[in-house]
Amino acid sequence: MHVLLLKEPREGGSGPDPYIKELASRGHKATLIPVLSFTFVSLNTLSDKLFQPEQHGGLIFTSPRAVEAVKMCLEDDERTEQWNKDIKDKWNAKSIYVVGKATAALGEDTNILPLLFPCGSIKREVLPTALRENGVPLDTLMVYQTAQHPDLEKNLKNHFTEQGVPASIAFFSPSGVKFCLETVRRLSGQQLKQIKFAAIGPTTADAMTAEGLSVSCSADKPTAEHLATGIAKALQ
């Protein structure tokens, strides 16, 4: 059966997208359509903060784009030399947090210096609120803006015209639901109720439910294997 994945391409790697690969191993053909586009902003400000590690108690990353923004700040040869010479070691001596189990330890951080939090224009307030309630200071800096992919509607229309209505459609973010759902509804017509809708996790599932969609499966963990397993079961 055909599965439509509403997500961005694999981050900086060659070979097939892991979600397409996992679904193929379960007998399902998948197509990926990019939903979001990103514009980086405030990189000069981020760069200044990165080169003053003594001003912060650590770093928080909640998206690959934030990591990419940091890498872009280090592309200049002189900056790279300075970073490798002494700045990198100073950051490595601090706490670096990423989304996942390590985030739970943030509430135990008693460092009085603020944590540097490069983030996007669309961010949930759960983490900042939790840190604030636990007395952890946060220096939030928006380093990229999220918008709808310019070719999204055209790509969706072409896909439905060429492939027909998918057996399953997977959403990977609340933003994806916001930007895609109206077009998906229009193109699916009366067949909308036949589609098995899947979510990468509970936050996305909540956004789908809020829009009146019936969520057939939500991945136990946000991985290709877990989502493919859920979709395969829903399509049985």
Automatic annotation (TrEMBL):
GO cellular component: cytosol
Domain Tetrapyrrole biosynthesis uroporphyrinogen III synthase: from-to ranges: 19-106, 115-228
CDD domains (UniProt xref): HemD
Gene Ontology MF terms in the entry: uroporphyrinogen-III synthase activity
GO biological process: uroporphyrinogen III biosynthetic process
SUPFAM superfamilies recorded: HemD-like
PANTHER family xref list: UROPORPHYRINOGEN III SYNTHASE, UROPORPHYRINOGEN-III SYNTHASE
Protein name stated in the entry: Uroporphyrinogen-III synthase isoform X2
Species annotation: Salvelinus namaycush
